[in-house]
Design a protein that fits this description.
The protein has three helices and two strands. It is mainly α. α1 crosses α3 and α2 crosses α3.
Length: about 60
Protein backbone atom coordinates (compact mmCIF):
# COMPACT_ATOMS: atom_id res chain seq x y z
CA UNK A 1 0.00 0.00 0.00
CA UNK A 2 1.20 3.52 -0.82
CA UNK A 3 1.32 5.85 2.16
CA UNK A 4 3.80 8.72 1.74
CA UNK A 5 1.95 11.18 -0.52
CA UNK A 6 -1.48 9.72 -0.97
CA UNK A 7 -4.31 7.72 0.37
CA UNK A 8 -5.25 4.73 -1.76
CA UNK A 9 -8.67 3.24 -2.06
CA UNK A 10 -7.47 0.58 0.38
CA UNK A 11 -6.52 3.20 2.97
CA UNK A 12 -8.48 6.30 3.80
CA UNK A 13 -9.66 6.43 0.19
CA UNK A 14 -9.81 10.11 -0.71
CA UNK A 15 -7.42 10.12 -3.66
CA UNK A 16 -4.05 11.78 -4.06
CA UNK A 17 -2.68 14.35 -1.64
CA UNK A 18 0.35 16.61 -1.73
CA UNK A 19 2.06 18.90 -4.19
CA UNK A 20 1.34 18.50 -7.93
CA UNK A 21 4.91 17.38 -8.60
CA UNK A 22 4.69 14.73 -5.88
CA UNK A 23 1.36 13.46 -7.25
CA UNK A 24 2.79 13.18 -10.75
CA UNK A 25 5.84 11.28 -9.49
CA UNK A 26 3.71 8.98 -7.36
CA UNK A 27 1.38 8.17 -10.25
CA UNK A 28 4.25 7.75 -12.70
CA UNK A 29 6.12 5.46 -10.34
CA UNK A 30 3.01 3.37 -9.73
CA UNK A 31 2.36 3.00 -13.46
CA UNK A 32 5.96 1.99 -14.17
CA UNK A 33 6.46 -0.29 -11.16
CA UNK A 34 3.17 -2.15 -11.71
CA UNK A 35 3.14 -1.97 -15.52
CA UNK A 36 -0.28 -0.41 -14.96
CA UNK A 37 -2.68 1.25 -17.34
CA UNK A 38 -4.21 4.67 -16.71
CA UNK A 39 -7.44 2.88 -15.80
CA UNK A 40 -5.65 0.68 -13.24
CA UNK A 41 -3.86 3.66 -11.69
CA UNK A 42 -7.12 5.60 -11.47
CA UNK A 43 -8.81 2.69 -9.73
CA UNK A 44 -5.92 2.18 -7.31
CA UNK A 45 -5.86 5.84 -6.25
CA UNK A 46 -9.63 6.34 -6.41
CA UNK A 47 -9.39 9.13 -8.99
CA UNK A 48 -10.67 9.54 -12.54
CA UNK A 49 -8.75 8.51 -15.64
CA UNK A 50 -8.79 12.19 -16.68
CA UNK A 51 -7.09 13.13 -13.42
CA UNK A 52 -4.37 10.55 -14.01
CA UNK A 53 -3.74 11.97 -17.49
CA UNK A 54 -3.74 15.56 -16.22
CA UNK A 55 -1.42 14.87 -13.29
CA UNK A 56 1.14 12.89 -15.32
CA UNK A 57 1.14 15.08 -18.44
CA UNK A 58 1.22 18.46 -16.68
Amino acid sequence: MHTHVLNTRHGEGTGLKGLPEERAITLGNYIIEHDATVRQAAKEFNISKSTVHTEVIN
